[in-house]
Write a structure and sequence with these properties.
Largest sheet: none
Helix content: over 70%
Structural class: mainly alpha
Shape: globular
Number of helices: 20
Low-confidence stretches: 376-380
Order of helices and strands: HHHHHHHHHHHHHHHHHHHH
Mean pLDDT: 90
Distance between the termini: 37 Å
Strand content: under 5%
Radius of gyration: 21 Å
Number of strands: 0
Length: 380
Amino acid sequence: MLALVVALAAAGFLVILLQPRAARLSSDFTINYSAGVLVRQGHFAAPYRQAALADTMRRVAPDGAIDPRLPFSLPLVAALPFAALSLLSIDLAFRVWQIVAAALLLVAVLILQRARPLDRKAPAFAMLGLLAAVPTWTALTEGQVTPLLVVGGALLVAALSRDRWGLAAAGGALLAIKPQYLPAYLLVVLAARRWRMLLVAGVAATLVLMSPLAAGAGGMAAMVHNALRANQAVAIRLDEAWIGVLGPALPAVAATAVAIAVYLAVLAALGLTAWRRPASTTGFAVLAVALSLLASPHALPHDLLMLAVPAWLAVDLFFEGRLPNPIPGLLLIDLALLIDLHGVGLPLGPIVMTAVVLWYGWRFRQRAQQHRRPPVVQAA
């Protein structure tokens, strides 16, 4: 397994390092960079106005490098780091953001190591594993904001472990950048019955989500409208969620509605489980984040970088003897994503990930039942 991880890490490093300029300019980074340019110039509403955003994208990435119809769909506050980066040329800014993103992943690993300590060599192996992960490759080659969300998830785990409200506020704020991944973490806090922490994280997330109001009264509606457009702009078969498997069999107009319905149904089931207070908050956290990714209405390969936090918690459960070694399961998911990069007509990632979640969930319940048996029954 170590040899396979090292080989994947070497391949990932080469993919990131040798990415052609045309691929960089056609990435999501160009959208965020263009939104940052507009915010730096004081045009807060312009990132959500497609004509203004498209004109800026054509200036920073000429010769039709990127589709000008692609919208900016994040909360306005998410454009602030890119507003600072827009002082640099887009090529230099892209490389700087890649370094920042890699540093953010290291920060997340160090936060997790302090909150839920593993072996002292665990951070080094975790960074090797992250470099070997296809979601990391896609996040870095797209200049995505996903590493910020990984830090947010790590901060909420640390907040629960250390009972720190400030960490919960920071975690909630970062996770709100892509709000479809926020509820799962809030439900984990609910399951742990940390009411004040839940309130603090929720308020911080709300402030981030309300940041489009700086663009005017219609800012919120514009962000939601652009989020729906962004979901429809990407071929549904590229989604590494259940809708990527179900969507091609559905009418185009029904796919989005089905995706949202599945997502809400899963959140409702997780909410009921959290309210009943699961026996293991850590086990529930692993399950909740994994299912929120599978049920997401829009989850591209880079979004699965969010698995970094539940993967760490799964390893912690493994050392406690409550879960089998999660590394083989993670490798299977990574190999499925690697196949999906080349396309086989049907996304394998969500199928393999569902099988892995079911198998590890069954084994977790099996071991939990064994631990609950009286000693005499175990001996018998």
